[in-house]
Structures are given as structure tokens and as C-alpha cells.
Amino acid sequence: MALYEASATQLLSQLESGEVTSVEVTQACLDRIREHDGAVGAFLKVMDEKALAKAAEVDRKRKAGEDLGLLAGVPVAVKDLLCTEGEVTTCASKMLENFVPPYSSTVIKKLEAADAVIVGKTNMDEFAMGGSTENSALGKTRNPWNTDLVPGGSSGGAAACLAAQMVPLSIGTDTGGSIRQPASFCGVVGLKPTYGRVSRFGLIAFASSLDQIGPMARTAEDTALFLEAMAGHDPQDSTSANVACPLFSKTVDQPLEGLRIGLVKEHFGEGLDSEVEKSVREAVAVYEKLGAKVVDISLPHNKYGIATYYIIAPSEASSNLARFDGAHYGHRCDEATMLEELQKEKEAFEAAGDELGLKRMDTPLIRMYRQSRAEGFGPEVKRRIMLGTYTLSAGYYDAFYLKALKVRRLIREDYDKAFKAVDVIVGPTAPNPAFAAGSKTNDPLAMYLEDLYTVTANLAGIPAISIPCGMTSGGLPVGLHMQAPALEEDRLLRAAYMFQKETAWHAKTPSL
Question: What sequence ranges are listed for the domain Amidase (predicted)?
Fold first, then answer.
């Protein structure tokens, strides 16, 4: 087995035994990236020198018998919206193309404390707004299983680099399915933790009440180890859950006795691809053979999930992205050109005797704000900012935003009721396998419906995971979606491990 093929757990065993060094492992991953990322486009930046220097430091500490962190010497990729001190952090946007944070996010600090080797920053949909990684202003990412297809989004680069075996571990973020949907499309594991389980300090926000950072890997075992390294209370994040964090890696291999699986009748209706449904039902049959009991349940307010999400998330985005105006943060337009154009407009109004036009003209400051934002943001980000601004505006707040918050509460109550009858809720991660690049870019609604089964977990704040559970006749991965009550990531990881012990879907890799 080549080093790049090994899981994080396998690599740690080899590193601890002295069979390999961290420098050798890191170099193998860097070579793999150099060989294949030209076709995949998973990375926005590869940090070769820093990665090898960190790997050498870990090797030195290991040889000297010093204490080492949980991920000592294991290469990790990071989605490019986590602030990383001294490294450009772009959110895949022209707005932040040259932004160098003066501090690191809590999760980055935790990775450093765990002695992980950060090899690079991965591509994403701009400001995490999208489901295909086609909205990146800095380049498109392709699916390693078929480069004519999208890898999903917004954590498309994070999922693609795992599927292409460039790294064993990758960090994603999930606001409405942005870890789980690309995990499904790329045939890897992706976990969205409970809201508050992982600190959001230093995460460049999209929607603050929905965003969550989470682990992506190729196995449930690696995902458990990775979550253990990044989770925990953080006093710098006011929304961080001040609860004890389990040792996920110690319990992941313990089977769940008497597991009750809930199948949501609303998840198996119109719009679900037949091959996806077949794979999901076959996965449920595997659990039944392991002794699980299947219970039919209903989540009646799930049908309002997309509408609710696409009011709440853009509203929060409108507020969060207001700071990117060319003065406080981000891209600033060419002021000399802007002032010259403003002067020409003034002269044209004066020549036409248009007093109303003169009164309505921007001041230089307002024009700078407007032009900087127009140049810095891409079409999808602008669409969501405008939608959010509209729903928060006077006369529409009660009709849209306030009503969406009430429906969000009803969605959470549906889950509370369901979890009295079942331990986990199982269904498809996405309604279809990976789709062709460009096929949905001009149809925002079709793109938004890709999150049909995932957004409600974010609205309810509960943990959810996607694991590979099958392949289509066209050779594309299918993801199984599992949800559990708040703070029950351990249950999801154990259920995922049970399935992976009985199947080999997670071991399948694309031919590059």
C-alpha cells in the first residue's frame, strides 16, 4: 500500500512504530497533489515548505520521546475560510483574494496543538454559498470520479482531495449540507457536528446560527479521531457548547445494540433518483441484518426546510457580509478611476440640467462602497445578499424572517418527537449522484434543492453524517445520511463504523 492510500489511523500506527517518518508521509501527499491536482483543482494553496518543516519537527519530537498530539505527523487539508495566521485566507472570493489574517482560528490552533501537518487550503464555493464549487472566483474544482462532474459544495475541494487520496483528513464547513453533500458526491465520510460542538472562532461567517466546522475523512474511524482533535468548549466563541467532549476514537468500534433506525417517509418521494433510493434501502437492510429495528417516521415540517433555510441563511449572510465594503475589510476598487467616472456622471447631469439626478448621485464614499462590493462579490453571493436584505427590510421582516424562525422551531420539534421513537434517522444525503458541471448554474432553485435532505439538520442544530453506501450504474458514489439527537456524534460514528465493517463502499477509490 502506498503511503497516500493509507488512512490516518493506519499512518499513525506506522509513524509510532517507526516504520515511516512524517516527512515521508507528507512528501507522499505533496507528490500526489502535484501529480493530480491539475486535473482536480482541489487546492487553492499548497504550503509545501511549512508542511515539511512541521513534519520534520514532529519527527524530531517523536525521536526525542517528547509528548505528541493526537494527529502527530498526519497531513491535513483545510477549507479556505478558516483564518490562518500569516497565510492568505480567501473564502474563494475576489473580495478576500489578498486577505492575510493576523490570527488563527481556534480549529487551526487545535490542529497545531495536535501536531497535524497542514498541507494546504482547499477550494470552495465563494463564502460557502453553493452546492457545486462552481461559484469559486479562483477556479473550479472537479469530481475525481469523473472530471466532467461537480464534486458538490461548498466543501468541494475538501471532499475532492480526499477522494483523490491527496490527504487522509480534510476540514469542511456545513451551513446547509456543505460537508455532507460533497462527501456523498465524492464517496467519502463527512460529519456535521452539533451546533456548538466545534468552535467557530476564526471562521469567516456565512450564516452564524447555522455554520458548523466538521471533519471529513475516508473512514468512520478517522472521522472520529479527527473530531476528537477539533471539538471542545471555547470561551472565545459565545455559541460554543460548554459540555464534556467524548473520546470519540475510543468508542467508535463499539457496536450499538438494539439500534432503532427511523426512515422518513417524506424522504422517499418525488425527486429522488431511483439508484440512490436503491442504495439507501440496501444499506438499511445491512443494518437490519446487524439487528437494527427499522421504524417508519414522519417529519411533517421537513417540506418547509428549503424555504425556511433560504430565508434565514441569506438574512444572516446579508448582515455578516456587510463588513466587506473596501474600507473595513476586503477588496477596494480603483479610487482614481471611480472618482473620474463619478465626475463624468456629474458633468453629464449638469449639462442636461438634471437637478434630480444631481441630488441622487452617490457621494465618493458611497460609490467606493458600492463599486468595491460589486467588483469583489460573485453573482451567487450578490443574489443571497439581496435576498437577505429584502427579507430583513421594513414591511417584510414579519412576513418572511420572523415566520421562518417560527417554522424552524417546528422543524426542531419534529426531530425531538422522532428521537423519542428512534436512535438515528437514516435516508439519502442528496437526491441524486454528482451532476454535470454547468448543468445547474443557471437554475438557482435546482441547485438549492440539492440540499433537500440536509438543511433541516442545520436548522435544528443536530449532528448528521454522510457515509458511502453504494455506487450507481455509471460508477458514481451514493451517500447514506444519518442524523442523531444533539451532542450524539458518538452514536453516528459508531453506526457508521458498524456499516463500514460489513461493507467496502468506503474503500472504493476513483481511477485518476
Answer: 24-493
Catalytic residue list contains 249: no
Question: Which 3-state string (H, E, C) describes 468-507?
Answer: EEEECCCCCEEEEEEECCCCCHHHHHHHHHHHHHHCCHHH
**By the 8 A CB rule, do 207 and 489 touch?**
no
Q: What is the 3-state secondary structure (H, E, C) of 183-213?
A: HHHHCCEEEECCCCCCCCCCECCCCCCCCEE
In single-letter form, the type of residue at position 344 comes to K
73 and 217 fall within a common domain:
yes
**The pTM is what?**
0.96
Among candidate residues 22, 136, 178, 466, the one labeled active-site is 178
Q: Based on the fold, state whether residues 85 and 202 are members of the same structural domain.
A: yes
pLDDT band at 458 (very low <50, low <70, confident <90, very high): very high
Residues 42 and 184 in one domain: yes
Q: Is 154 a catalytic residue?
A: yes
* Whether residue 377 sits in one domain with residue 235: no
Q: Three-class SS of residue 14?
A: helix
Question: At 262, phi and psi to the nearest 5?
Answer: -100, 125
CA dihedral 363, 367, 369, 372 (to 10 degrees): -160
Q: Note whether 25 and 159 are same-domain residues.
A: yes
Catalytic option among 7, 22, 79, 132 = 79
Domain stops at, among 400, 434, 460: 400
Query: Which entry of 154, 170, 184, 466 is annotated as an active-site residue?
Result: 154
CATH code for the domain in which residue 53 is found: 3.90.1300.10
Q: Show the domain range for 193.
A: 3-257+491-507
Mean pLDDT, rounded, for 451-462: 97
In a domain, 471, yes or no: no
Gap between the Cα atoms of 125 and 141, Å rounded? 9
Q: Cα 126 vs. chain centroid, distance in angstroms?
A: 12
The structural domain count of the chain equals 2
User: Tens digits of per-residue pLDDT, 243-302?
Assistant: 999 999 999 999 999 999 999 999 998 889 999 999 999 999 999 999 999 999 999 999
